[in-house]
């Protein structure tokens, strides 16, 4: 069975190439055109990614994340959300890798079956890295004004994070 799964992707690629050749498509020309287009998109989104990564590093290094966590901790505790999840809630809309590091730290400290560990895992699985996604997709197509995208996405993130925490609390 493992042999079949190892062959699926090469078979799809080969099948696509054979199908294109049977239709008279210049496969190599299309491949190079697609690669060139991919590089163009990479160059367009690179400034947004550099700015976003710099902002994440500054947020973590400045202590602002810890300060916000200490301010929001009592509010989250009152809502029934583990205060240990606050750094994850702050990092998730900004950085997927940063949020994964915070989530991994929570799971390592409290254990995967603890309320904090389960909450971190569900939060990671039920929310999106809003600012990264907006930076990449909007830059790729040349949109400069986000209009209502960021407020709507942040409302969805807050809803997802709070719902995840409360669901875990009431399911365990």
Summarize the structure.
By secondary structure, this protein is mainly α. It is built from eight helices and no strands.
Q: What is the approximate shape?
A: extended
The percentage of residues in β strands lies in: under 5%
| Strand-pairing-aware structural class | mainly alpha
Q: Tell me the Rg in angstroms.
A: 21 Å
Task: Name the average pLDDT.
Answer: 88
The unreliable regions are none
Q: Please provide the ordered H/E string of secondary-structure elements.
A: HHHHHHHH
Distance between the termini: 37 Å
How would you characterize the largest beta sheet? none
* Strand count: 0
Helical content (DSSP H or I, runs of 4+): over 70%
Number of domains: 1
Q: How many helical elements?
A: 8
Describe the structure.
The chain is mostly helical and 172 residues long. The protein has one domain. Helices cover 82% and strands 0% of the residues. The chain has eight helices and no strands. The model has no long low-confidence stretch (mean pLDDT 88).
What is the topological layout?
Layout: H1 2-22, H2 27-62, H3 64-79, H4 86-91, H5 96-110, H6 115-126, H7 130-141, H8 149-171
Helix pairs in contact: 2-7, 5-6, 6-8
């Amino acid at each position: 069975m493992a042999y079949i799964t190892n062959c699926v992707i090469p078979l799809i690629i080969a099948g696509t190439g054979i199908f294109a050749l049977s239709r008279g498509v210049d496969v190599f020309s299309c491949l190079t055109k697609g690669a060139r287009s991919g590089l163009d998109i990479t160059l367009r989104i690179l400034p947004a990614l550099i700015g976003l990564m710099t902002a994440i590093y500054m947020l973590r290094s400045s202590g602002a994340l810890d300060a916000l966590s200490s301010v929001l901790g009592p509010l989250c505790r009152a809502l029934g959300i583990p205060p240990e999840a606050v750094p994850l809630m702050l990092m998730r809309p900004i950085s997927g890798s940063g949020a994964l590091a915070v989530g991994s730290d929570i799971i390592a400290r409290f254990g995967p079956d603890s309320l904090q560990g389960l909450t971190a895992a569900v939060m990671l699985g039920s929310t999106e890295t809003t600012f990264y996604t907006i930076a990449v997709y909007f830059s790729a197509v040349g949109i400069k004004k986000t209009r209502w995208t960021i407020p709507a996405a942040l409302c969805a993130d807050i809803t997802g994070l709070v719902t995840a925490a409360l669901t875990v609390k009431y399911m365990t």
